[in-house]
Amino acid sequence: ADKMDNYIGVGECLLLSCVNGVIFALFAAQPLLIVGATGPLMVFDMSLYQFCQTNEIDFLSMRVWIGIWMTVIGLLVVAVEAIALVRKFTRFIEEIFASLVCIIFVYEAITNMAAIFYDHPLLEVYSCGYYPSNTTSYPNT
């Protein structure tokens, strides 16, 4: 929510994951399969939001169109049984993708910590309640 100016937050993700899971369980007959927001989806949404801000495009309408196109592509994949191509993917490709997502999250954490340190730098004197007895004036807090 912080990265996307509260367009999509935790509440929306939980609600839509619940609705999506119920629909998936009703049509796929797999009620125990977990369908929800994941790290790559969050990275995609952050990147899409930055893209939309840069090009002055409405984020939510772009997200709806992406959802519509994903539905069309998913139906085409099912219609031609292209899911059989999944066996061509190896574990190596999965690990590369997971590593890229991990690098993005580590980068975001480091930039957030750097921004916090920039806003609140370390000072030589902190007001922690203890002052030496030979100090006559207290530092500004």
Automatic annotation (TrEMBL):
GO terms for cellular component: plasma membrane. The keyword Membrane applies. One of its GO terms (biological process) is monoatomic anion transport. Keywords: Membrane, Transmembrane, Transmembrane helix. The keyword Metal-binding does not apply. GO terms for molecular function: solute:inorganic anion antiporter activity. InterPro entries: HCO3_transpt-like_TM_dom, HCO3_transpt_euk. This is Bicarbonate transporter-like transmembrane domain-containing protein. It comes from Cherax quadricarinatus.
